[in-house]
């Protein structure tokens, strides 16, 4: 009894007999076929990405408590993006395998239509990869909220630390003169924390709106384009005649090659002519400050210096919500430089100090750019902080 060859031995497979004569070997356009010129060399797909444990995975444990949850969310979104990229790559690999299989069936109609269907499947893979890129933009917007949370955490810690020191001194030595000094420092810490918390609220609301508007618009684009490709795929399937044949009957040749090419051209034109059309537009009332910082009470801190001087009228930033492109855009009209006294340094959030160039020492010109007009409530909050601080200094 002869031994069978091992499963790893190389064999040369003979080509299967043709079912309806010879298969057409006409030159193909790159947009109408997914087959390569050298059809015998098929490149193996790259191995799938694996999430390996590294020291970088421990960074989330050393993040500030305020930004730790969002840090993990952003990290998880990175895995989601990698999954969509892998799905797009595998989809294009399936398209090539479908075309290669159809070519070796020996059926003229299956050979032609499998190649055209492979083009549509390959384009579906491209849409998955484009969607992953849009998700990366959405993820980068979430990082701005995380960075703002990280900058606010030290302000909270400093405030709570002063409160703890005051409580300890009042318990151990109620007559200590250091209590008055700590109370004055607590007033400054509360003022700084108030500005930081207001900035965090404004940045969180604005960037959360912008981030998920980016994601939902990307979902709509992906769904619309996949619908276009799927609808034309159904049109392509109608060109395949599945009438049963009896043994010995000759299969008629495939004569709808022009119609199949036209379906691919129609799909390509529909993808080019696609535009975003949604009924519900996302509006925004956020005011953009120089450097990309969105702040409300920070502007109130800038106007506290008007107690010593007077603030002249301030032209507003005019924000016009638009939703014509991938993300909501803003048309911003910058305001001119305004003359006002520089605010105290402890009333300006550290993130704004570098952006707006504010410091405790006023510049020689005394000019500073204010971000947008202040509401009456913002002015009252800033003035109440100053009055409280002045009263504490007077008591000392």
UniProtKB/TrEMBL annotation:
Domain of life: Eukaryota
Feature: compositional bias, Pro residues: 1-18
Region (Disordered): 1-53, 318-342, 356-396
GO cellular component terms, semicolon-separated: eisosome filament; plasma membrane
Single annotated GO MF: lipid binding
PANTHER family linked: PRIMARY COMPONENT OF EISOSOMES (EUROFUNG), SPHINGOLIPID LONG CHAIN BASE-RESPONSIVE PROTEIN PIL1
GO process terms (BP): eisosome assembly; endocytosis
Polar residues: compositionally biased ranges: 22-32, 319-334
Keywords for the protein's UniProt record, in alphabetical order: Phosphoprotein
Biased composition (Low complexity): 356-365
Entries under InterPro entries matching the protein: AH/BAR_dom_sf, PIL1/LSP1
Listed name of the protein: Similar to Sphingolipid long chain base-responsive protein LSP1 acc. no. Q12230
Organism: Pyronema omphalodes (strain CBS 100304)
Database matches in Pfam families: Pil1 (PF13805)
């Amino acid at each position: 009894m002869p031994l069978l060859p091992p499963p790893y031995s190389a064999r040369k497979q003979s080509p299967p007999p043709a079912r309806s004569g010879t298969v057409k070997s006409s030159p193909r356009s790159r947009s109408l076929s997914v087959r390569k010129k050298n059809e015998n060399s098929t490149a193996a797909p790259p191995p799938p990405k694996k999430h390996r444990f590294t020291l970088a995975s421990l960074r989330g444990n050393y993040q500030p408590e305020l930004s730790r949850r969002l840090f993990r969310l952003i990290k998880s979104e990175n895995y989601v993006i990698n999954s969509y990229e892998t799905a797009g790559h595998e989809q294009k690999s399936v398209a090539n395998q479908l075309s290669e299989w159809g070519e070796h069936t020996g059926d003229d109609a299956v050979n032609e239509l499998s190649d055209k269907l492979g083009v549509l499947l390959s384009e579906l893979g491209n849409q998955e990869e484009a969607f992953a890129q849009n998700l990366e933009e959405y993820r980068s917007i979430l990082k701005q909220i995380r960075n703002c949370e990280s900058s606010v955490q030290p302000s909270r810690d400093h405030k709570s630390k002063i409160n703890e020191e005051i409580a300890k001194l009042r318990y151990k030595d109620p007559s200590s003169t250091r209590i008055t000094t700590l109370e004055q420092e607590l007033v400054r810490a509360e003022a700084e924390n108030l500005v930081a918390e207001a900035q965090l609220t404004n940045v969180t609301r604005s960037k959360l709106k912008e981030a998920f508007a980016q994601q939902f618009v990307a979902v709509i684009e992906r769904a619309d384009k996949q619908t276009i490709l799927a609808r034309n795929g159904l049109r392509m399937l109608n060109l395949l005649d599945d009438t049963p044949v009896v043994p010995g009957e000759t299969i008629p040749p495939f004569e709808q090659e022009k119609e199949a090419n036209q379906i691919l051209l129609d799909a390509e034109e529909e993808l080019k002519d696609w535009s975003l059309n949604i009924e519900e537009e996302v509006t925004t009332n956020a005011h953009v400050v120089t450097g990309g910082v969105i702040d409300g009470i920070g502007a109130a801190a800038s106007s506290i210096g008007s107690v010593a001087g007077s603030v002249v009228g301030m032209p507003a930033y005019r924000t016009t919500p638009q939703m014509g492109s991938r993300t909501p855009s803003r048309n911003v009209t910058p305001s001119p430089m305004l003359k006002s006294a520089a605010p105290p340094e402890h009333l300006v959030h550290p993130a704004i100090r570098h952006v707006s160039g504010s410091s405790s020492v006023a510049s020689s010109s005394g000019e500073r750019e204010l971000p947008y007009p202040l509401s009456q409530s913002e002015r009252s909050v800033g003035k109440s902080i100053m009055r409280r601080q002045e009263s504490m200094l007077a008591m000392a």
